[in-house]
Backbone:
């Protein structure tokens, strides 16, 4: 399912099976293991957690599909 083409997708390929932090439109943030993505930047996360910025609390979500047009930033967790 992963696309292996230029720029963004080459970097995303390096993030596969690693924990990532995703910032979404509207201020929401998710973390989880990047399982796959596609050419629209739709992202499948396993063991996903929603991070609540005001309190830094984490809410377990399990496996989620994030629609690509809501994604602002994808970053690996070090």
Residues:
């Amino acid at each position: 399912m992963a696309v292996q083409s230029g720029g963004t997708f080459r970097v995303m390929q390096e993030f596969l099976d690693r924990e990532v932090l995703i910032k979404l439109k509207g201020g929401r943030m998710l973390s989880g293991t990047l399982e796959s993505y596609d050419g629209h930047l739709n992202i499948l996360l396993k063991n996903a957690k929603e991070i609540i910025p005001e309190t830094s609390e984490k809410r377990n979500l399990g496996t989620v599909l994030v629609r690509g047009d809501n994604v602002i930033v994808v970053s690996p967790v070090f």
The chain has one domain: 7-76.
